[in-house]
Amino acid sequence: MRATSSPRPPSIAPQLEVSYDDVSLGYFVRRFVTPDDDNSLPGHLSFLPSLFNHSGHGVLELATLSVAQMAAYNQFRGDKFRLQSYQNYGRALRALRKTIQDEDEVTDDRVLAAVLLLCMYKVKDQS
User: Fold this and answer.
1) In the predicted model, what is the mean pLDDT of residues 52-65?
2) Where are the alpha helices (DSSP H) in 6-108?
3) Which of 46, 53, 62, 81, by CA, is between 20 and 30 Å from 113?
């Protein structure tokens, strides 16, 4: 006698949750960091990857994330982009204030890049 097996229920893959950080950083890098396909000029922030610490959460990383989230908000809308951008902007300002108190760190290229990004943030926030 042959055992009958019940049919396997269809497998339903769980829906992947997209990280707002990843979406905003991906958009920001494509739009402002990487070269434009139409010309051979680098993106105007092409220096950023060499300074960025992917595992860190320092002033540069926070400034980049806040600008990226505001750029994503301006492009895609979505209040979560804007809210997270404001939160990370505040964190970046607090980290910058702490960093510039250290004479050794104040002249670091990462600090200058963070200041430039935070200036960019104000422009993006006005858009």
Assistant:
1) 87
2) 20-28, 48-51, 59-76, 79-99
3) 81
* pTM of the predicted model as reported, rounded to 2 decimal places: 0.77
Amino acid at 71: A
Name the nearest CA neighbour of 42 among 73, 56, 50: 50
**What are the b/e assignments for 109-125, b being 16+ CB within 10 Å?**
ebbebbbbbbebbeebb
What span, in angstroms and rounded, lies between the C-alpha atoms of 107 and 22? 29
Q: Report the SS3 class of residue 13.
A: coil
pLDDT digits (tens, 9 = 90+) for 14-30: 776 778 899 999 999 88
Q: ∠ at Cα 32 (99, 69), nearest 5°?
A: 60
Q: Which amino acid is at 13?
A: A
Tokens 């990462």, residue? 110
The residue assigned the tokens 């540069």 is 60
Residue that has been written with the tokens 């702490």 in this structure: 98
